[in-house]
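I am still getting used to backbone structure tokens and would like to learn alongside you. To get us started, please write out a protein record for me. Once you have written the record down, we can walk along the chain together.
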Amino acid sequence: MNPKDSSSRKKRYIRVIGPRLRVLLFGILVLFALLGANSAYLSSITFLEWFTGETYENYFYQLMFLGHLVLGLLIILPVIVFAGGMDYRLNPEGICQLEANCPASTDRLSECYR
């Protein structure tokens, strides 16, 4: 086999994260950052109450807790859509099972997939 033959048969490079998925990923990362900041605030107030024995929970704390719940619920759908988009980009034919003729003792599972 000539080296020219193998180079001409190379698969075209496809970006795993396309432009629309990139926007969705950015939105998911922003939501996770907000959720993390909110988490840090809630945990610091909880720790401060435990450490000092005084109560620091007020109306703002309750709003932050409600915001934490809302952010957690808001992030579920975009993560599911992103995972589905990634699955489609990586496997457009929908093939997700091993080939029937794949030897069970193989170390390279990539040979078993189409």
